[in-house]
Amino acid sequence: MSRYVFDFSDGNKDLKDLLGGKGANLAEMTRMGLPVPPGFTITTDACREYLHTGTLPSGLLREVEDHLRLVEARLGKRLGDIHEPLLLSVRSGGPFSMPGMMETILDIGLNDTTVLALAARSGDERFAWDSYRRLIQMFGRTVYGVPAELFEAGPGDTAALRDLVATYQKVFAEYTGRDFPQSPREQLYGAITAVFQSWNADRAVLYRRQERIPHDLGTAVNVQAMVFGNRGPRSGSGVAFTRDPATGRRGAYGDYLPDAQGEDVVAGIRNTLTLADLSRIDPASHVKLLSIMEKLEQRFRDLCDIEFTIEDGDLWMLQTRVGKRTPAAAFVIAAQLVDEGTITLDEAISRVTGDQLAHLMFPAFDLDAAPEPLTTAVAASPGAASGAIVFDSTAATAADGPVILVRHETNPDDLPGMIAAQGILTSRGGKTSHAAVVARGMGKTCVCGAEQAVVDPVAETLTVGTTVLHAGDVISIDGTTGHVYAGAVPVRSSSVVRFFEGELSPLGDPLLAAVQRLMTHAGHVARLAVHANADTAADARRARRFGATGIGLCRTEHMFLGPRRELVEHLILGDHESALAELLPLQRDDFTALLREMDGLPVTIRLIDPPLHEFLPSLEDLTARVAAAQAVGRDPGLDGLLLAAVRRMHEQNPMLGLRGVRLGLVVPGLFAMQVRAVAEAAAARVAAGGDPRPEIMVPLVGTVQELDVVRAEALEVLSRVEGAPPIPIGTMIEVPRAALTAGDIAHAADFFSFGTNDLTQMTWGFSRDDVEGAFFGRYLDLGVFTVSPFESLDTTGVGELVRTAVERGRATRPDLPTGVCGEHGGDPASIHFFHDVGLDYVSCSPYRIPIARLEAGRAAVTPATQPNGAAFGPTSTS
Amino acid sequence: MSRYVFDFSDGNKDLKDLLGGKGANLAEMTRMGLPVPPGFTITTDACREYLHTGTLPSGLLREVEDHLRLVEARLGKRLGDIHEPLLLSVRSGGPFSMPGMMETILDIGLNDTTVLALAARSGDERFAWDSYRRLIQMFGRTVYGVPAELFEAGPGDTAALRDLVATYQKVFAEYTGRDFPQSPREQLYGAITAVFQSWNADRAVLYRRQERIPHDLGTAVNVQAMVFGNRGPRSGSGVAFTRDPATGRRGAYGDYLPDAQGEDVVAGIRNTLTLADLSRIDPASHVKLLSIMEKLEQRFRDLCDIEFTIEDGDLWMLQTRVGKRTPAAAFVIAAQLVDEGTITLDEAISRVTGDQLAHLMFPAFDLDAAPEPLTTAVAASPGAASGAIVFDSTAATAADGPVILVRHETNPDDLPGMIAAQGILTSRGGKTSHAAVVARGMGKTCVCGAEQAVVDPVAETLTVGTTVLHAGDVISIDGTTGHVYAGAVPVRSSSVVRFFEGELSPLGDPLLAAVQRLMTHAGHVARLAVHANADTAADARRARRFGATGIGLCRTEHMFLGPRRELVEHLILGDHESALAELLPLQRDDFTALLREMDGLPVTIRLIDPPLHEFLPSLEDLTARVAAAQAVGRDPGLDGLLLAAVRRMHEQNPMLGLRGVRLGLVVPGLFAMQVRAVAEAAAARVAAGGDPRPEIMVPLVGTVQELDVVRAEALEVLSRVEGAPPIPIGTMIEVPRAALTAGDIAHAADFFSFGTNDLTQMTWGFSRDDVEGAFFGRYLDLGVFTVSPFESLDTTGVGELVRTAVERGRATRPDLPTGVCGEHGGDPASIHFFHDVGLDYVSCSPYRIPIARLEAGRAAVTPATQPNGAAFGPTSTS
């Protein structure tokens, strides 16, 4: 028979899955001998059983009664006793903290009779009626769903409170069709059942989906004897942190409210006092509290937050947990705990995340200089942006200065405007709306669902309350907090970025010192190297300052843009050989500059990848130009020739067309020119005394035969360039077939680099450009995805191909170097996966380098995760 | 130590790998006691050793000398003997017959001395000098590469021949820089070495690549005593078949040339006689020959072809092998051999192929009514087509009647013309040219590389010899034979098709009787069922007549074309719900008609797959129309609205965009309308007393979550239609991720159907539309492909995904029905693969049904192939 109930003295902090976080920590404090009001926890097993069968598990009532008797015995009170009534609180508490669930009902046990006993025993009639009033209100709202607004506010004197209880009882009876239950046991079991049911409330389900919390965990229920902070001036309630959760500064930090219950502190009805004030009011309790907080830090080995109540001079601990903190505090506290000998450096890096570091690297508004926000909405894509308001895409693209695109909601028509704008503000939609999904994909600041803002695109006004803004007025949006401000707000650059850039010293700055220390340790323990995706010498320089130990992806096509487009037009339309001859020295100079910046480090150069027609004007533009010319009888001239070429080269699906290695096999001399440019650049660097380490990477290979041909041609070209160092020739693995046949391909490849962007597109069969706006929002809403597979690697599907390719490649060539150069190389969860499957490096954009370095270290000290089931196993068992 | 030489009396017909086909069969005849001139075979092992090391294997010379002495002893002659000189032939012979290799050198052993002995012994001086002339010519050409044209033609009288020998010796010496070797042993070893080397001649390598013959087999060499058919009227040479290779008719059939060597028969210099003539000229040899041919048929259990020589009244067998035959003969002979008790029906179906059946089903020119061909070129894509000549794509698309597009070569610009034309004729390029690859992809008749034809697109003339044809003149091209005819040639419909259609009876027609018999047996033994891809009642009817036992793919999008496009425009632009309401009864009628045709058989209906914008006019058309209107100041009207919609819905890569299940999840009510139409159609059929068996198939699923949502909605719709039978809901497996996660997907799928077209596109990362013309020809030339993966399944890459999905799907649901509905379902090699991986059915277009039925039977009686290595193993070991 299962055991469904644990007394607080039976559990401990490691039983979170069974007892929930709150219950496990109440048990831990009880075990530590701290003053915790007695009580017990009903397990998550009981909840799951209830959700499965729809009835409370058999045996549960008996266990509850047994434990209830224990509590009664300890306190000398009994539930429903008309002389010494025991009052109880019932609180939910799952393995993860989860807003949206029923949380607390206080004062269970009060009824028309026991309220009189409470008044008599406490000598405080007002307190007794106020407690009863609270019970009816909380019970009605959470157990019977009585709308909160039906319970009018207003504690007054005792008589008024007695009347209010009568009124509330009437409200309850009218709404529910039955009288307020006078049986304390009915109150207790009603509350327990309501907690169980709240697990499947809409908001709770939505929250779990967003936060990727499994739906089958269930919640525990904590039943505890009441203590009262509202028993007069010698009573009170407070919350406290063992360190400052905003900055990490050492020392207790908290709020205290005399003559109040915990919910009053949180509600912010009255101004709270500080802990220093408490030391004056009740020095004994203050000293005791500080001593307890120190013990808790030692036990939990981290910043704790606590809730406490003082009842008539007796201190009671109601809750503790490892406290939330800002990203800056996370770094500072982790470093402090190392200094204090509490944790190791390995543990320290496991307590900070790449996402926290990313937040520290975003530019942020200078909040000291910021006005009151106009409104606060969904923080959909982080960053800080100011600009003139525009109401449509055309205005956005036509604008000279920075603009913020303001829309009800966005659709694919708005894409050009979204690209042109500094940021996007919408009045509708949440984190999975079109605007949110696309903005995150672009790394663009976005605030969504500003419901208090009225957007009128015809009148071109944005109205919030009484403030009316017009097109051209400047607003500022904070995608990290969701704040919207009228006017420009000064932006403060990130001190962490300036530190990485070498502009700030960590001396005397606790945050920078902590970042430096943890990053250094991450570098020591990491197995994954971190390379950069960089196409220019400037990018390479920044990447190197940010700690990149190589370039994992240099895209050579970017080198064919701008004025060099004309040479590509020659290559396509005109004299093939002379165009290549003109491109050769330009490419050589590109590579020479890059190799100079990265002297002594590997530089992986990818041969040209996109279809050549991408360098020509668009079919649509040319069609319109030629049609317009012909309509007025004018010769379309060069446009006509270009249109013919673009039509000839037009592809239905350019992503699946003549690109990558296919170009190299079809366009004579193109790859050879690039290979020669690499070799000559390397030879020039050697001649200049440098240590160039170029590597050549062939894109889009699907079968070893393609690579065999390209490799033979490249080796022939390399053999003819004197003075060049040995240059490895490897391949991207970005086509599913390449992953499946990696055992063959490894025969012809000196290294593998996973192109997880294309691999994701082809494995799922969708193109990022076409789908993020078109249906990703819907998919996230439906729960088809928990996160976009372009943001974080789909470890089940795409990940299996990566794992398979590594295994088969290494079966052929045991020392095969492997890396990843898709955007997933900078994503924390993906980096852990790449560590687990044994890659040698990740490569990402320069600004993600520090994040990747940190996560590479964290991955090395964290047990391997089994994300979404084992790679070859099922992801669900629907 | 290896044994490199086998006397003919040591081998047998099962040693083809070691002795080559020719050597194994010479040995077999020797073992049978037939009159074979003595000789021996040098093994393929020796060849491989030579190719590997560049020298003849040690020990080979000694073995050759030993065997040579045996031959000498048997005949009482010696190589180089000045009284009784032994003359030898040296012939190549690999495991597969292979044009492009050096084949034969005769008369080895002749020199300035032995020629005199031969003259003396034979009493025929002219014969001796003619033989010597032949030796110098053959040896010079094949061992030293002396160009054939340097040896002027012309046997004359003896004196002239003696002069010719002197001339040839001079030619030889001038070209090679050395005298013609007088040593018979040098001649012998030179010839053996030349045979070995010819394995790697360009033409041989190319041929092997085209025919998918492995490059590492090597060739054997047969050394044999010469016999002479050119020793006067009692001598002669012939070739014969044991049955008519054109029709399969019983009875020996052959050509005989008196006083001639075998090469003279093949060269066709003189008109040959028939075997009936031989029975008059040399009745004894004739009787002996017929008796030998009967023995060979019994031994080889099949039609044999033979080469024989009669030397002075003595019959000698020089070669035999299982003979090539026409597709019609293949069927007739296989059935005959069953009748004769020689082979089983299982063997009979393994001796005919789906490709042969396909040839019998193409319409063909009525050759009795055909004129002489103008020219014969590469038969690039089978079929027969007549039409007016057009020289460019514009003319082709503008033409009213049938046209043949005539080009030097084609490129992507010609695609519209290729689609519009009945057939394509080019003067350049071979089987892998753009024209050939694209035409085969379209199933369009094509003749390529007609080098004798001069195409002048400016003058618009096609000139062959003295015939000049102009644009508009009619020509006919035969893509099965490569013939090109001036004028229209009557087309004869296929009797086999008319038989399948039920229009012809097999009674009294040996071909149709054979086809019927073998098809029936194939049906009995096949494990794979054969379903049809059919969207209309007419297609379904034909498919059923052709033997389909279900519809494996009904594409519902075809039902939205024509006048219904307007409803799709409403769906997109206008009133969504009313458009769906209007579509519902139309779809219901579509499905009712289909279910009526296929009463009692499964009909798998795929929910709509392509992006909705495909039903709107093209972006290019609309852009041009709107631009033209605006240029002259006219309001573009509806075109403007449509353009906005098309722009909004435009996709960079529609194949990877909003289609398939994604549409179903994004467009409310679309799938529900289709599901309801299916259920209502089925209910109507039940009410009418029918036995409807519809199945619903969801396209493009990549994760089980998509299918979960669609399935739940569909089940809800189905539950509301009264009177409908149970309707299974399954999924396509066409996205790589679906194959990888098939274990999950099977939880929500009642069946799997592999969409191998899309699966091939996504696994390789290329779209068929974009790549076949752009680079497949180049890939075939380079040997990257041996066959287009759209024609025949890539069993290594795509096949691994199919195999994986079947295994994982069945692990979840052991009785999961699986099939394939991509075009590979009608491809013979692919069908064998699908049989081997355990699918339940293949589905293909109606005209491929009989081919698939035959191959399904053949697969069941053929051992599993290991195409390109095991599915998970390497395809090469470069």
UniProtKB/TrEMBL annotation, chains A, B:
Name of this chain's protein: Pyruvate, phosphate dikinase
Native source organism of the sequence: Actinoplanes sichuanensis
Listed cofactors: Mg(2+)
Gene Ontology terms, MF aspect: pyruvate, phosphate dikinase activity
NCBIfam families assigned: PRK05878.1 (NF004531), pyru_phos_dikin (TIGR01828)
Record-stated family: Belongs to the PEP-utilizing enzyme family.
Residues covered by the PEP-utilising enzyme C-terminal domain: 515-857
Keyword Mitochondrion included in the entry's annotation: no
Superkingdom field: Bacteria
EC number of the protein: 2.7.9.1
Domain Pyruvate phosphate dikinase AMP/ATP-binding: 17-56, 62-271
Reaction(s) the record says it catalyses: pyruvate + phosphate + ATP = phosphoenolpyruvate + AMP + diphosphate + H(+)
Keywords, comma-separated and alphabetical: ATP-binding, Kinase, Magnesium, Metal-binding, Nucleotide-binding, Pyruvate, Transferase
Keyword Repressor: no
Family annotation (InterPro entries): ATP_grasp_subdomain_1, PEP-util_enz_mobile_dom, PEP_util_AS, PEP_util_C, Phosphohistidine_dom_sf, PPDK_AMP/ATP-bd, Pyruvate_phosphate_dikinase, Pyrv/PenolPyrv_kinase-like_dom
Domain PEP-utilising enzyme mobile: 402-482
